[in-house]
């Protein structure tokens, strides 16, 4: 299965609740704009081999920043961002 990194980046979207969830999970207090820029940075920096589709979600691991993004594969909505435990 081919994963189109550019399509994910161009179509990424957010729900109202996800901003608070991301701040809580990452232990930050960022504005919406800051979160969107951070997510974009994580996606752009992640290597294509770190993009995986399982079921209805994409999982994108950014090992440099120790985070994993979960994205709905149909709507391209960010579901959550988790810290990768070493």
Walk me through the structure.
By secondary structure, the protein is an alpha+beta fold. The protein has one domain (5-83). It has helices spanning 5-11, 16-26, 32-45; strands at residues 51-54, 57-62, 67-72, 78-83. Strands 1-2-3-4 form a four-stranded antiparallel beta sheet. A hairpin with a 2-residue loop joins strand 1 (51-54) and strand 2 (57-62). The mean pLDDT is 96.
**What's the helix-strand series?**
HHHEEEE
Largest sheet: 4 strands, antiparallel
Q: Which value, in Å, is the CA radius of gyration?
A: 12 Å
Number of domains: 1
Proportion of residues in extended strands: 25-35%
Oligomer description? single chain
Task: Give the number of helices.
Answer: 3
Structural category is alpha+beta
Task: Describe the secondary structure blueprint for this structure.
Blueprint lengths: L4 H7 L4 H11 L5 H14 L5 E4 L2 E6 L4 E6 L5 E6 L3
Antiparallel strand pairs: 1-2, 2-3, 3-4
Question: Which tags fit this structure?
Answer:
alpha+beta; 4-stranded antiparallel beta sheet; single chain
In short:
The protein is an alpha+beta fold and 86 residues long.
